[in-house]
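Please annotate the following for my students:
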Amino acid sequence: MTQTPIVEVNQLTKSYGSVTAVNNVSFSLTPNKIYGLLGRNGAGKTTIMHMLTAQLFPTSGKLAVFGEAPYENNRVLSQICFIKESQKYPDSYNVQDVLELSASLFPNWDREYANKLLQDFQLPLKRKIKKLSRGMHSSVGIIAGLASRAPLTIFDEPYLGLDAVARSLFYDRLLEDYAEHPRTVILSTHLIDEVSRMLEHVIVVDRGSVIIDEDAEELRGAACSIAGTTAKVESFIEGRTVIAKEPFGALTNAAIMGRLSANERQQAAALGLEIAPVSLQQLIVHLTKGQTQPKGGDLI
């Protein structure tokens, strides 16, 4: 049974004068799935999120969220929680003020859960937001995003300043609460390896265009690395799509697209070649460098 998309984007473009930040982008998001919106800094990810949340108008194209245009539409906007990198709050606000404001904005707000998260992240309720460390400031946004239980929850690099332990706590709480209260979540981050285990679908933006729109499981096996003596590696990868190649003296390590059959793996073993998976982060880094060379030749 096909689910009605929560977000439908069709040929969306955003230009600033002669600069095109988002170029003819199309994709859809289905309910109750965790998406990764990934790409390099300046690729257009944040511009897309600002259009989804009615903070920017597109130059052209169509955009529907929950089946409607989001602009000045409280029915739609009340169902979206967008936690931005370095979220801004009034100077007079303390942590409790932010949570009270959030409770008034989000119909699904869970006060009890927010209080539990306050203890988990060890946040002082009465401290002014402007007096918080960068990590504590990020924790405020994380708590607001999780406790909002908004049907569309967007985190744009939400954990600046958090140490590895606090980031891990965020991932654990997100997965736990998502299991009990499913919703559509967008994670936009450069820490791809850290979040890759959570992602169900990946959208990669590069230079304003979508270059990948795939289930994460498909991408996890989409490439592998082949290492060994240069002549044997070159022979094995001939005719394949090579996304990276690094020589080390008489040795070469090449990353290739595509899954290897059992027979191909046996051939590689017979040649003394080592096969290893390419992580989601490595794959995206390779693809957004524009280094794909279809016939196994030298990379540009």
